Give the backbone structure.
Amino acid sequence: MAGELIVVMRPEAAADETEAVLERIRMTGFGVHTTMVGERLLISVEAGGDTAELEEMLPQMDGVVRAVPVQSPYKLVAKEASDGPSAVPIGPTALIGGGHFGVIAGPCAVEDADQLFAAAEAVRRAGAVAMRGGAYKPRSSPYSFQGLGTQGLRLLAEAKARTGLAIVTEVLDPRHVEAVAAVADVLQVGARNMQNFALLREVGQGQRPVLLKRGMTATYEEWLMAAEYILAAGNPNVILCERGVRSFETYTRNMFDVAAIPVVHQLSHLPVIADPSHGAGRWRMVHPLALAAVAAGADGLLVEVHPNPARALSDGAQSLTPDNFSRLMAAVLTLRATLRGEQPALRQP
Ligand code: PEP
Ligand code: MN
């Protein structure tokens, strides 16, 4: 059975203090598992019995902040495992989560240099913190455009050098993690791979932040358990992304679940962002759904933007033009200021 008790150590706990805590737990015969979450070591106790005595004892030991029973099957991503909401780095300067908001935008797929650089420049000017674009695309048909692969990664690296934007791009295959992580500031794990456990373990073994999309039919618990795989493998930097779920409706591509945002904030310390583009599959829906997500407390947005959506090789119907993206960014800024009860700040030219 999975652990029922999480022991949170002080960031400055000495190695012998940690060892004494582990020894005390082992005396009970229970298993232990350790993971770093940010600066802190978390000890997960795999209890086969009553943990009441440990709950009393452990907080008295040096180096221990607290010992909390966690009833949910996910432990490390549970809200109780952290002192507050986690902030995840997006490139060298930006953060998402823990009060930091950021927008990631760009085309569905990297198509060619002109398309990518035009999109990069447009999203940078409008105020995105990072650009997205798939070099490896998960397509329903093997005959559809699959992405440019390594050539796409090279173009992403060049877009990063030109604009200074952080790069978010999808990794489909555990064998590609190293090559994609060499270019990406954030590795996207797509909806179709949310329960690809080999891939989750692989991205969990590195320290590159991971954007974990909700699976097409995933419950909140399945989604959080997928994130737990990444944290349990040692990588604390996970951003969850709500992108809509399958439903009976055919007018929209997916049913965007705005409730996912407050639910994740209720259950976990991880940041959650919204992808209104895949959420509806139609560009006209992107603006209202993005604002709904911001109003619900999303820590950021992921938006598809193409310099010429009519010519896009994938997801043109849901991609915003640069002008429409700028309008959305202005509306997001105004809404966030209103939600904070402030006057909207004047935008930089
Ligand atoms: C994408 O972001 O382009 C994508 C394929 O998303 P999802 O995995 O949410 O379908
Ligand atoms: Mn797409």
